[in-house]
Amino acid sequence: MFYRPEDGHGLPHNPFNAIITPRPIGWISTRGTAGDNLAPYSFFNAVAYVPPQVMFASTSAKSDREDTKDSVAQIRETGVFCVNIVEYAMRDAMNVTSAGLPAGEDEFTAAGLEKVQCETIDCPRVAAAPASLECRMTQIVRLEGETNWLVLGEVTGVHMRDDCLVDGTFDITRYQPLTRLGYRDYAKISDLFSLKRPDD
To answer: Most buried of 4, 29, 53, 169 (most Cβ within 10 A)?
Structure first.
């Protein structure tokens, strides 16, 4: 099968997200004049080592935020955000925070999550997350499309849960990262294998 996106795919559901999988989930926490916010984004990844940098993209809007959602609106306001890593055990709480709540309604409270203050930025983070990345926004880029925004940030602080550190390495099997697939599907990572590069 071949299709041009502008012509449509003719399938019951858009296959694009199902093709590009698995995708890590950035659970983005922000603070603004409207209050604290927490929302999951599956268009998320790391993009550089030195300095460490991450990105996430927001692809829809809310009526009370004009051209975007709460996360991007509050990052525009403050210039900071935190990426919380989602473990399999927190899948239901993460799903609760995906609801389009009115601006100012706290998703931490809605999901029953404890929040703590970040160290390098004025922002909350998920207390029980296996890892959290405190970030200073470096760019917000408007992408093609009416409500598509790319947010880039430099990591200014890193939190790792002590039980995930094993012999000096961050062991993801201790918490099993939740990943986003296509449609309404998710997966957890529990099995690992290693490959040695030819030039190592």
So the answer is: 29
Can you tell me the distance from the alpha carbon of 36 to that of 115, in angstroms, rounded to the nearest whole number?
A: 10
pLDDT confidence of residue 23: 97
For residue 29, give the H/E element and its range.
Answer: strand 26-32
Distance, in Å, from the CA atom of 186 to the CA atom of 42, rounded to the nearest integer, reads 11
3-class secondary structure, 96: helix
Q: Is the pTM of this model over 0.85?
A: yes
CB distance 51 to 154 below 8 Å: yes
| Domain 5-188 CATH class label | mainly beta
SS3 for 95?
Answer: helix
Domain boundaries, the chain: 5-188
Distance CA 200, CA 198 (A): 6
The rounded distance, in Å, linking the Cα atoms of 161 and 87 is 12
pLDDT digits (tens, 9 = 90+) for 73-101: 999 999 999 999 999 999 999 999 999 99
**3-state DSSP helix/strand/coil % of the chain, to nearest 5:** 20, 40, 45
